[in-house]
Specification:
With 789 residues, this protein is α+β, with helices and mostly antiparallel strands. The chain has 28 helices and twelve strands. The strands form four sheets. It has a four-stranded antiparallel β-sheet with strand order 1-2-3-4, with no helix packed on it. It has a three-stranded parallel β-sheet with strand order 5-9-10. A hairpin with a 2-residue loop joins strand 7 and strand 8 (546-547). Helix 9 (187-201) packs antiparallel against helix 18 (451-461) and helix 16 runs antiparallel to helix 17.
Length: 789
Amino acid sequence: MYGYTSKVQFADSKDEYKGSYRNIHLLQPESPSVKVVVQDGSSTMELLAIFSGSDAVLRVNGAVVASWPFAAQLSSVPKPFILQHALKDLLLAAPVDRFNRFAALLGFEDLTQVHKDLLAFCTKPPMPLAAKELSAAIDGLILRVQADPQLTAVARSIKKGYPELSATRKLVSNAAHKLVGAAPKGPELLGELIKARDAATSQFFQGSVAVGPFAESDSIAVGTEQQAMLALVTTELPPLVATLAAESAQHKILREAEFYGLGLSLLETAPAVCPFCNRELKPIDVAHIRERHGSLMAAEQATAGLRGAQKEVARVLSDLGQRVTEYYKRIGGRTKALLEANTALPQLEALLGGKQGAHLTTIRAAMEEIGATITSFVDRGRDVRSAIKTVESLVQQPVADLTAVERLGQALVDYIAAGGAAKSVMDRHAASLAQANGVLTDELNAVAGTGTISLLIALIENDQKLEKRIILATATDNLKTLKADVDAFVTKLMLEAISGELAGDVMDWYKRIRTVGDPDVHFAGFDMKKTPQGGRVQIKASSYGKDLVSAVSSLSESKLNALGLCISIAINLKEKSPFDFLIIDDPIQSWDKDHETQFIGVIRELVERGKQVVLLSHNGEWIKQVRTGCADFNGLYYEITGYTEDGPVIRAFPWVEPRQRLQTILALIEDQTADSVRLQQAEEELRQVLHQLACTLHEGVKGIPKNPATLNSEKVLKVLTECGIATPQVNRVMLIFETLDDAHHAAPEYSANRQKLRQYYETAMQLSKAIEARLKDDQKLSVVKPKTA
């Protein structure tokens, strides 16, 4: 019903318990299940948990549910099971594990989980990749600033955090003004610093060997550009060119119309001379030309589709050309500085020789490989542009087929692939080139004496990033404070719960069980402290007024078991629980006789506090003592008398023997000081003894046991009659049920009658003797039964 058992949950080796929830005798495909029927007044609810795989399918009144309706209450109150292995797990666990077990027992699981989550968050707060990269970059810059003697004041101001940010910016500005020898402001100041640095460093080297890495947004933009180019060639262009091919017959009309139109325009200047051959034209010839042009212009209206397709093809090809250029800029543009630096290898060798030779090797290898891919990229770009021009030429002439478009598509695919290859190579070299460029910058600043000015440029360029990093650092420092506050709060809360109220409750119960016949070595309370590994719960012990190392190492196994039991009892009674029962499994295991006897008094007190107690034990003698010591309670007693493959064989026995109940009834009747409450107890005992006597008779005569708890007056009448008790005797017994008021339904003014009870007692004694005689007669008959042929 909980979804797990403590035995498996706290097992050292989970592999040892795999599959242990399923009864091996319940064959597939049957599923193990647990059913509980809960009744609240007139309302009944059936709960069914069916084991499926490694989980449970939950049903409420037949309907599948994700969790029980009372799941929140179930997890917030102690479990009403007191089990020996769980007690040992609690006491003998390592102090840190014991802390977690106590937290679970006290309903602090949610609190401890939130505590752990908060500590984990405060110790290592999750940050997006961009924030981590920003922090790493700015932290590196701050370290370089701290190493520069000329920027000591700036470094100190940065360390003071956000409250000093304005002062930090002013210190950076003042240091920059000293270096450039002027008083420019804003962007002008940055420009002057860069001009001064470049003037000094250009004597040794100009440019950069870095290739900017592709951020996620850059890669997305490249992919978008690729898709857009392919869409133009595969989706937009083919239907337009197909239209050109379908309208190819209109090309002749268009060309002839343009020819006659040009001729008419020239005739305006020399109306009697042919504009193309200077031959004299007669009026009839001019009229023919005008007539022919007019008919062609009328036919030209049918060429509107061709003209529209021509314009659209031109637009698509223009768009494609622009995108081809943009695609190269996005990829190839990043390599410009590196490839230009190829012409300055002697300067690079002078700056990066000796100890920095590995970086020079990195630069050369990158130049060679990236240069080769960029060359291929450029060549494939030329192929695309050539293919574009070929398609453009088709616009003004009849189109025979789509071959030119197919060639353009293939050229574009090759171009995109070349760009992807170049990008891949650049991504692979970006980190090593960035490192090499950083070393180159340091060496260049060293020989040019521009280290400080370069740091000031970096501080100004990264002003907003520096502010964000300082805000992040402030937030992280605040998390440290939060961590300490949360830790202190949870520690105080749990310390008060464990070493205060709980310790007092446990001590009260322990005093009820503790014995005085052995040395004074006993439980002395709880203590709790925090360690780097987590909370620790210490179980204290004392001997004759002196503190011992711990209860775990000092108490006997018997006392430890008694202490564990007291802890569980105290926790179960500490708060209001929906469970009015406690199931206690073999509580006297490893106990001495004194502890066994003391615990019977604890059982009585639990019942008197309103708890139903279910005891399980292998010790029949001790259970007999419990039944005797609690004979005045209504109890049920079952024995497992054997086992089969189908399960245990369980028999019901009287909680108290009829003879003992009769003696109790007589004692209560003869006790002149007994008040109405005790006389009502005698009435209850009368009902119980009559039920038990009927069950004894039924089992003796018919060989079938019955449970006294299931009987009522009608069932008792039936048993007595069927089993041969004389009718007058039966009638006297029935009179008891008719006239004896049910004690737990008695009206407030009801009062038991002592004289009537004495008469009923005599009837019960007579019934007991009659049943004894009846069973003896049956025994004799079975012995002398004659043989049959």
